[in-house]
Design a protein that fits this description.
CATH superfamily of the largest domain in chain B: P-loop containing nucleotide triphosphate hydrolases
Shape of chain B: globular
Helix content of chain B: 25-40%
Strand content of chain A: under 5%
Oligomer: heterodimer
Radius of gyration of chain B: 18 Å
Shape of chain A: globular
Strand content of chain B: 25-35%
Number of helices of chain B: 9
Number of domains of chain A: 3
Largest sheet of chain B: 6 strands, mixed
């Protein structure tokens, strides 16, 4: 029977890989794959080939881990593992449920397959995911080469840790289910586990009190002395015994070379095998919880595929409207009202107003004392970072527009509205959210940023004029930015649909996302050039006549007109596209 | 009230609907029938202004759909087979949203009896996720009826409804037709057509096979045999296959 299950897994894997390769025939996937592969090579593989990364703090500070610190490192790793294991016995409150897909449940649960065979199938199945995760972590932690070893020992080391943890979680969930069957509620179990942990802590503390002196300043003078003290601490009382199995599990990962790795691998695999046997011999009914888990996951995947992140997070609750929606008035406002309801209730005018009051209030309070000068530097710094994030990533995060409503286009198109009205209405919510954030950023810069002395020509009056001049431009800038992803949603809906589906993975998806963000930045930069040129020309031409402050105001007005014109053209054009849009034909293969 | 002439919809080289012409007057209920892939839903989506026709002319309540789409849409309501709702709006919020879109000033006075009629008044503050499939369908219908449309398009209106819901839906369609509405519905359920429709239009492969009153179409395909069922007529008309 297990042969059939392995066949299922391997055939599914083979078909998945084949379909991934086949879809590379489509240019969007091929280009995405090339860009994604290039990105991964530049970010990770080249670094691994080149050995240690340049300028990495660990290499400059310590080279590789000195051999005498290895036991301490292993003990620290084991301690972390122990904490994770402890949480696995405390946190869960539901019955054991193995992760099966809906198809697996439909085919395997009614089939003459023993419960043990299903467990073996799931365990083997999960190893693929664990291997993949281990490979990913190895890629992302390539810079941890100061720990010694190489990519292979780290990769297999991660696999041993993750696979054993995975088994432990399953085994723990089985035991907890059995406890529930015996009438021990989750809270009683937590109480018992916490009691046992408390007992271990008390015994250890008593032992430490007897055998270990309190740390003195020389113990914490440098890293090595602190490590030595910690070593003594972790070797006291029952701690070495408690940490022993966990140490065996982390030892392969921390092995400094291949022979040490092979030596450490044996005991680690014994711990793994014991866990495997433990799980396999557990006779626990997991079917009900597995079905519930599978349905929940399927609903979540469906919600994510529809771009409904709030539903996917399970946080969907009826909520009061953000403002009173009168039945008469501009219909575009109805979209703002609707889409604000789809976001977190944080994005409301009163929240932004409160944040503004806080920013100004805290800054003024800190500014009263000259000793707070260092703290005040944080304000413009944080504002600059927030501005960069909002401008570069904001339009990708604030998606309460056409991107989220693509599935509803049939209904939107029956409304008695022109295409541009729907497009504008749909864009209003992310415009409002991003504008609110950027206004807070501007306010922060306005109250906290003072140009250095060499920019003395930027008088306080001019600074305020520039700041105030930028405020009305923000909605237009945000609208300009949002035109690009909304245009992509209408022009390349299949592309946007695939990218929106976070369940889709692979280097081609990484590449597609990189291309998309780069394309957006390019288009927005090009669109801002006429406005920037206009601003410079206006300032240059008028400052001699009306002074710099008035020139800034004139330039801001000019830029505003240019940006609004660009946005209006973009919205009108997108509206035309929306009127001709047919999602069903766009998504045809 | 609905006038369609020469309607054609092509997707690349594939023709979904070809040179289709028909008219539906106020008080009439036209049933669109045909095998899978006959072009029923495409026809409905074209004449509801959801997708542009490749060629042809369509007029809704006197408004040329291509020239005055906003005017035409103000008079119509489209009910898809799968209710399309906004997950984060409650029943009442859906109605408030639709009221603003259509500018229905006294929407609360209209909405309350509608909710009662559709038996979802007690669900007014619930999200679609908390409603059954039938309840969602009812909410979609309430949204569509809020602006008192003169023209209604139903795509498989009975999908997902329980027997009582089916009875009420049929009554509701007939009641609105009697009140002067022009109704087009597409369905595979021939008994629905027999009970509700005054006229029928049979499509196959995107082309019109027959249209007229039920009696006319029956007479055409019964070959003089008495008591031929609509199912038999449908099979004879479409040749018993999809293509």
């Amino acid at each position: 029977m297990i042969g059939a299950l392995i066949f299922l897994r391997l055939t599914s894997l083979k078909n998945l890989l084949l379909s991934r390769f086949r879809r590379l025939k489509q240019p969007k996937y091929l280009v995405g794959a090339i860009v994604g592969a290039g990105y991964l090579y530049l970010m990770f593989f080249r670094r691994m080939h080149a050995g240690r990364p340049r300028g990495n703090y660990s290499t400059t500070l310590a080279g590789t881990l000195p051999p005498d610190l290895l036991p301490t490192a292993i003990a620290i790793g084991a301690f972390i593992l122990l904490v994770i294991v402890f949480l696995a016995w405390i946190v869960p409150d539901s019955r054991a449920g193995l992760s099966f897909t809906e198809a697996e449940i439909a085919f395997l649960f009614p089939a003459p397959v023993s419960r043990r065979s299903l467990i073996v199938y799931k365990l083997l199945n999960s190893q693929l995911a664990v291997l993949f995760t281990a490979a990913l972590i190895t890629l992302f932690t390539g810079s941890w080469s100061y720990l010694g070893g190489n990519a292979l020992t780290h990769g297999f080391g991660w696999w041993v840790i993750l696979a054993t943890l995975n088994l432990h979680f399953i085994g723990a969930s089985f035991v907890m289910t059995r406890l529930m069957d015996h009438g021990i509620t989750p809270w009683l179990r937590r109480f018992l586990v916490l009691g046992l942990v408390l007992l271990a802590v008390l015994v250890t503390a008593a032992w430490l009190w007897r055998d270990l002196r309190a740390p003195v300043s020389s113990d914490l003078a440098n890293f090595r002395s602190a490590a030595n003290y910690l070593d003594g601490f972790l070797a006291t009382g029952p701690l070495p015994w408690l940490l022993f199995p966990a140490k065996l599990v982390v030892a392969p990962f921390l092995a400094p070379d291949t022979p040490s790795f092979l030596l450490a691998l044996g005991p680690a695999l014994v711990v793994f095998a014991l866990h495997f046997l433990w799980v396999l011999r557990s006779e626990v009914s997991f079917e009900d919880a597995s079905i519930a888990k599978s349905e929940k996951r399927a609903a979540k995947v469906a919600a994510v595929r529809e771009g409904n992140w709030r539903a996917a997070s399970g946080a969907l609750k009826a909520r009061k409207g953000p403002f009173h929606l009168s039945p008469l008035g501009r219909p575009e406002i109805a979209f703002l009202w609707k889409n604000l309801l789809s976001t977190f209730p944080l994005f409301r005018p009163r929240t932004f107003a409160l944040a503004a009051v806080l920013i100004v209030g805290v800054h003024r309070w800190l500014a009263r004392d000259p000793g707070n000068r260092a703290a005040l530097v944080v304000f413009p710094l944080v504002a600059a970072i927030a501005a960069a994030y909002t401008i570069f990533l904001g339009p990708q995060i604030a998606r309460q527009d056409l991107r989220s409503d693509l599935a509803n286009t049939d209904i939107l198109k029956t409304y008695p509205l022109r295409g541009w009205q729907v497009v504008l209405g749909e864009m209003l919510t992310p415009i409002a959210i991003l504008t609110g954030v950027l206004w807070l950023v501007l306010l922060t810069l306005l109250v906290s940023f003072h140009p250095p002395a060499r920019f003395a020509w930027v008088t306080p009056g001019l600074r305020v004029a520039i700041g105030l001049g930028l405020f009305p431009l923000m909605p237009a800038v945000c609208a300009l930015q949002l035109l690009v992803p909304n245009a992509a949603a209408l022009l390349f809906p299949a592309w946007v649909q695939t990218m929106r589906d976070r369940t889709e993975r692979g280097i081609e998806m990484i590449g597609q996302r990189i291309i998309f963000v780069a394309g957006q930045l390019l288009v927005v930069t090009l669109a801002l050039i006429p406005a920037a040129a206009g601003a410079l020309a206006l300032v240059f031409a008028t400052q001699w006549l009306i002074g710099p402050i008035a020139a800034v105001a004139v330039a801001a007005a000019g830029v505003f007109v240019i940006l609004v014109a660009e946005v209006a053209c973009g919205v009108w054009w997108l509206g035309q596209r929306f009127e001709k849009f047919d999602l069903s034909s766009e998504l045809r293969p | 009230m609905i006038e369609v002439s020469g309607l054609t919809k092509r997707y690349g080289s594939f023709t979904a609907v070809h040179d289709l012409s028909f008219a539906v007057r106020p008080g009439e209920v036209l049933g669109l029938v045909g095998p899978n892939g006959a072009g029923k839903t495409t026809t409905l989506r074209c004449i509801a202004g959801i997708i542009p026709a490749t060629a042809g002319h369509c007029s809704i309540a006197g408004h040329h759909l291509a020239v005055d789409p906003v005017g035409a849409k103000r008079t119509l309501a489209f009910f898809p087979d799968e209710p399309r709702l906004f997950d984060y709006l409650t029943v009442r919020q859906h109605l408030a949203f639709v009221a603003r879109i259509y500018g229905v000033e006294n929407h609360e006075a209209i909405a309350e009896p509608l909710l009662v009629e559709l038996e979802i008044a007690d669900k007014a503050n619930q999200l679609p996720g908390e409603l059954s499939r039938g309840m969602k369908q009812k909410l979609a219908i309430a949204c569509g009826l809020l602006h008192s449309p003169q023209v209604m398009f139903f795509d498989e209106p009975l999908t997902g409804l329980d027997p009582l819901g089916i009875r009420r839906m049929k009554d509701s369609i007939l009641q609105r037709a009697r009140a002067g509405a022009t109704i087009v519905l597409s369905s595979h359920l021939l008994h629905l057509l027999e009970e509700v429709c005054s006229h029928v239009l049979i499509l196959k492969g995107g082309e019109k096979i027959a249209d007229g009153t039920l009696a006319d179409v029956s007479a055409r395909f019964s070959n003089g045999e008495p008591g031929v069922s609509l199912e038999e007529i449908f099979i004879r008309a479409t040749g018993g296959s999809e293509t």
